[in-house]
Amino acid sequence: MKIRLALLLCLSLHLVPSQAQEAIRVGVELQPYQPYSEVENGEYRGYARELLDAFAAEQGYRFVYTPLPVRRLLGDFLGGRVDLKFPDHPQWNADQKAGHPVRYSQPAAPYVDGVLVKPQYLGQGKARIRLLGTQNGFTPWPYLEDIRAQRIKLIQANQIESLLLMAASDRVDAVYLNPRVVTHQLRQMRLAPDALVFDPQLAHVEDHYYLSSIHHPELIEAFDRFLERRAELVAAIRLRHGL
């Protein structure tokens, strides 16, 4: 009887997926960026957390989230100190990623990055923008030519809250950020929801965030299958977070 129990125990251990045996380190951004993500009391939260948790639960993975400043996150990712990175994009830090076989997932979260101005400046075009604020780590792609030609001066800050206050007090002419994130932040700051508004007539970027890995392409393949197979669940998570 004891031999039979030992054999059953051994077999059951072999049936446990190997990925459940060790933690998978997921590198994420420390900066608050709701509704996509934030870190509160050391806990990673938001749309990204719910999406990745749903994937991990279905596949039997054990994810450990490691929130890091944007630049350190890139270094830890390229150095192999985290297994997965979210968010990521093929265009981001392409020169630093050169030589690393980065594998990107299918689109995991839609986003828009663009220019937000005070309501009275809406529709007045690019010509009035001399000082453009954005967050450290952000690249205002549609305005790089103007910045390099010194037609626009780029002002960067670590905190979105600081940028919004600068725009509200006319210390910058506009900010280049994600409108959904700005809306959330204005609410948190108890400012009017239309204190800054997205100007769709100005150049902006509509794209997606991706999950990436260097050393574990099999995880990206599994995530892609999850996105396709559980499309309804993914859509419900997006709706829940206003995406």
How far apart, in Å, are the first and last alpha carbons? Answer: 56 Å
CATH superfamily of the largest domain: Periplasmic binding protein-like II
Sequence stretches where pLDDT stays below 50 over 5 or more residues = 1-20
What is the H-and-E element order?
A: HEEEHEHEHEEEHEHEHEEHH
Measured as a percent range, the helix fraction is 25-40%
Helix segment tally: 9
In CATH, what is the class of the largest domain?
Answer: Alpha Beta
Strand fraction: 25-35%
Largest sheet: 10 strands, mixed
Rounded mean pLDDT is 90
Tell me the number of structural domains: 2
CATH architecture descriptor of the largest domain: 3-Layer(aba) Sandwich
CATH topology of the largest domain: D-Maltodextrin-Binding Protein, domain 2
The whole-angstrom Rg is 21 Å
User: Would you tell me the structural class of the helices and strands?
Assistant: alpha/beta
Shape: globular
Q: What's the β-strand tally? A: 12
Family: Belongs to the bacterial solute-binding protein 3 family.
Organism: Ectopseudomonas hydrolytica
Protein name: Transporter substrate-binding domain-containing protein
Keywords: Signal
Task: Characterise this structure.
This protein has 243 residues and is of the alpha/beta class. The protein folds into two domains: 17-109 and 208-240, D-Maltodextrin-Binding Protein, domain 2 (3-Layer(aba) Sandwich), CATH 3.40.190.10; 111-206, Periplasmic binding protein-like II (D-Maltodextrin-Binding Protein, domain 2). 36% of the residues lie in helices and 25% in strands. It has nine helices and twelve strands. The protein has helices at 2-15, 47-59, 70-78, 94-97, 144-148, 160-168, 179-188, 217-229, 231-240, and strands spanning 23-29, 38-40, 43-45, 62-68, 84-88, 103-104, 109-117, 131-135, 153-157, 174-177, 197-198, 205-213. The strands form two sheets. Strands 1, 4, 5, 6, 7, 8, 9, 10, 11 and 12 form a ten-stranded mixed β-sheet that branches. Strands 2-3 form a two-stranded antiparallel ribbon. The protein is globular and about 55 Å long. The termini are far apart. Residues 1-20 have low confidence and may be disordered.
